[in-house]
Predict the 3D structure of the following.
Amino acid sequence: MATQTPLRIDPKGRVGLPRALRTEAHFDAGDEIVASVTGPGQVLLQTREAIREELWSANATGSGQGNSLEDVRDMREQDRQRSDAADAARHEQIASDEAGSAQRGETLLRTLGL
């Protein structure tokens, strides 16, 4: 069973980790620790390396639906297509605005007799 040790939060909000916990968790002096709230009254402490390993192992073969690399490529392609469609729509709007402006200009010139 994992080591359990009661801890107290000091008036400045700090918590000291006893050596036994640090040793079992493989926390070394100078390690950057990430704290994540996992629920009411629950905080998970992990090194960045532990998080990296967890993510890589969880996604070794993607989400169960294929290869992670393929998933990323598909998402990037979908994003590119959405971006291209948005660019095309902006260009159409600009062209439409320019055509409308030209027509208004011609009407104004005719009205002024120029």
